[in-house]
């Protein structure tokens, strides 16, 4: 069951890559929107979150997904059975979704809530329950049938990187279990409830206004978790 991992330079992509690469799963290639680096020699950077560099260091091919026809050809040549998305920042064309029997996404929220590109920020902002979901990919962002979900408890005062790492590791654990189950007879799929869905964009300055009606701990967690964005907080 050769796997293609699509991602970016992010903690989520890196954690999922490492989980697949070290678990014995047949990780065949990585995919990014556009290649940024020349082919490397035997260079090791254990701190890197860049999926392209991690794949090169592991000796795996890297597919540039921007060229749909070329990407399809490479997926076919590699015999890819499963495409996994983890912090892949672009909508996948239907032709690429259909290029492998299985195409799934790891999303760091309890879908259908907090669809969109920056769910960790919004969960901090709303003092919501954190979690991670695995779902089938369809033509809409983060809207496919659910395969598995798990809540994630974050420590008080958790920063963004720690939160993302904890969510990614839970997502990696779920992914490995689901890949095993797929080989044992498939998944039980659950449609997302659209009436409960929410979609949030990238945050802007207005989203850093403090809600003074929230408990002090919620405000503290929001500020600790989103300080990485570098925006001033206002009441």
Total number of helical segments? 7
| Element-by-element helix/strand order | EHEHEHEHEHEEHH
CATH class: Alpha Beta
Cross-sheet strand order for the largest sheet: 3-2-1-4-5-6-7
Instruction: Please tell me the total number of domains.
Output: 1
State the end-to-end CA separation: 52 Å
Number of strands: 7
Indicate the mean pLDDT: 92
* CATH architectural category: 3-Layer(aba) Sandwich
Question: Radius of gyration in whole Å, from Cα?
Answer: 18 Å
Unreliably modeled segments: 37-46
Biggest sheet details: 7 strands, mixed
Class by SSE composition = alpha/beta
Shape category = globular
Assign the CATH topology: Rossmann fold
Quick rundown:
This protein is α/β, with parallel strands linked by helices and 235 residues long. It has one domain (3-229): 3-Layer(aba) Sandwich (Rossmann fold), CATH 3.40.50.12230. It contains 7 helices and 7 strands, in the order E-H-E-H-E-H-E-H-E-H-E-E-H-H.
């Amino acid at each position: 069951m050769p796997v293609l991992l699509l991602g970016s330079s992010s903690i989520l992509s890196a954690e999922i890559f490492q989980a697949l690469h070290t678990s014995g799963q047949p990780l065949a290639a990585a995919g990014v929107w556009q290649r940024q680096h020349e082919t490397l020699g035997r260079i090791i950077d254990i701190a890197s979150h860049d999926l392209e560099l991690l794949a090169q260091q592991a000796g795996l091919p890297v597919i540039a997904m921007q060229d749909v026809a070329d990407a399809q050809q490479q997926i076919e040549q590699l015999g890819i059975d499963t495409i996994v998305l983890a912090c892949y920042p672009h909508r996948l064309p239907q032709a690429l979704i259909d290029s492998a029997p299985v195409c799934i996404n790891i999303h760091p929220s309890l879908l259908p809530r907090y669809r969109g590109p920056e769910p960790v920020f919004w969960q901090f902002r709303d003092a919501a329950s954190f979690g991670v979901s695995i779902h089938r990919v369809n033509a809409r962002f983060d809207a496919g049938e659910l395969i598995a979900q798990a809540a994630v408890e974050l420590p008080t005062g958790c920063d963004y990187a720690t939160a993302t790492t904890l969510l990614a590791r839970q997502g990696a654990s779920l992914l490995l279990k689901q890949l095993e189950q797929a080989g044992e007879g498939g998944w039980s799929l659950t449609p997302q409830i659209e009436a409960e869905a929410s979609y949030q964009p990238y945050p802007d300055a207005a989203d850093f206004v403090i809600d003074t009606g929230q408990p002090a701990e919620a405000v503290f967690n929001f500020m600790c978790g989103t300080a990485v964005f570098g925006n001033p907080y206002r009441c």
